[in-house]
Specification:
CATH class of the largest domain: Alpha Beta
Number of domains: 2
Strand content: 5-15%
CATH architecture of the largest domain: 3-Layer(aba) Sandwich
Number of strands: 10
Radius of gyration: 21 Å
CATH topology of the largest domain: Rossmann fold
Distance between the termini: 27 Å
Structural class: alpha/beta
CATH superfamily of the largest domain: Translation initiation factor eif-2b, domain 2
Bound molecules: ribulose-1,5-diphosphate
Length: 328
């Protein structure tokens, strides 16, 4: 089946992490669906629906952990299916699908802004904040707090093996914020100097557990031990509808070559194994609050948000799992 070059490139960029971070991945996926729709070369509505589902599958298989990716795709495809039921003509369905992709992107950008405004109210003047990896949502809170005149200092972890912490320090330094880069292993040593931890999320499960860059759960434990508040800043489209019906989140394992060289592997390949999990799970009990675009919630309220705003996604997911077409 024909796949536009630009769509192939976006899928490859997500896979190779040139596009990374759960929010960016979600927006890139929605954009790819829009580009695919604009470049559809067939004639019939049936072909179009098949083609769009095929493209969505390619995008869905690029990275497994961040639920923002399948949620962005479902957002667009769900509206495509509704449009098909309302008016089954190619032009109409195509227009509604492209509009849905734009809507998702706009919502996502607005959500990060709102999270910044809502979260910044929780930051006090003089706070020392620790963050991990590179999260647009977490940075939005810190930057907004600084913009509102609060004096904040930030510890940013390197975030091995891919060093996303370097992107974080660059962004914060550009905003004129006092930022110190630390090795991941120094977190517990420095925790006594920290007032608040703020991280992002790739997925939040129905019970309020948070999946984020590997190392996050150790930071949460260190914060818990030191009685330091642990906040998660995330858009609600990182809440996972599939976990409502008991699905587990797959944790991405990346190449050993992000940790050791090919020579090292060849030399030792019979004697050693290398594992490189990219994410881990922080249980809800270590999370003080989740800062979302809809307000600040305790992790246990995740299920309420899922039911209230993403009921359609839970139903959509359950029906697909059972192999039932949405139109039936
Ligand atoms: C990125 C990561 C980020 C979340 C949230 O991992 O774990 O903390 O995705 O980011 P990777 P955002 O670099 O492997 O994609 O708030 O920007 O969505």
């Amino acid at each position: 089946m024909f796949i536009p070059e630009q769509v192939k490139r976006i899928a490859e960029d997500i896979k190779s992490m040139r596009i990374r971070g759960a929010g960016r991945i979600a927006r890139a996926a929605a954009k790819a669906l829009k580009i695919a729709s604009e470049n559809f070369k067939g004639k019939s509505l049936e072909e179009y629906i098949q083609y769009m589902n095929h493209i969505a599958n390619i995008l869905r298989n690029t990275r497994p952990t961040a639920v923002s990716l399948p949620n962005a795709l479902s957002y667009v495809l769900y509206r495509m299916n509704i449009a098909k039921q309302t008016n089954p003509t190619l032009d109409y369905v195509r227009e509604k699908t492209e509009k849905a992709a734009d809507e998702f992107i706009q919502y996502s950008l607005q959500a990060i802004k709102l999270i910044g405004e809502i979260g910044a109210r929780r930051i006090s003047n003089g706070d020392v904040i620790l963050t991990h990896c590179n999260s647009s949502a977490a940075l939005s809170v810190i930057i907004e707090a600084a913009k509102s005149g609060k004096d904040v200092k930030v510890y940013a972890t390197e975030t091995r093996p891919k060093f996303q912490g370097h992107i974080t320090i660059e962004t914060l330094a550009r905003e004129g914020i006092d930022v110190t880069l630390i090795p991941d292993i120094a977190v517990r040593f420095l925790m006594k100097k920290v007032d608040k931890v703020i991280v992002g999320a790739d997925t939040v499960t129905a019970d309020g557990s948070v999946i984020n860059k590997v190392g996050t759960s150790q930071i949460a434990l260190a914060a818990y031990e030191a009685r330091v508040r642990f906040f998660v800043a995330t858009e609600t489209y990182k809440f996972s509808p599939a976990t409502v019906i008991g699905e587990e989140v797959l944790i991405e394992e990346r190449s050993p070559l992000e940790i050791v060289t090919a020579d090292f592997l060849t030399q030792y390949y019979l004697k050693i194994k290398v594992r490189n999990p990219a994410f881990d799970i922080t249980p809800a009990k270590y999370v003080d609050a989740i800062i979302t675009e809809k307000g600040i919630i305790p992790p246990q309220a995740t299920i309420l948000i899922l039911k209230e705003y993403y009921g359609w996604a839970i139903k959509d997911y359950a029906m697909r799992k059972l192999g039932i077409d949405l139109e039936e």
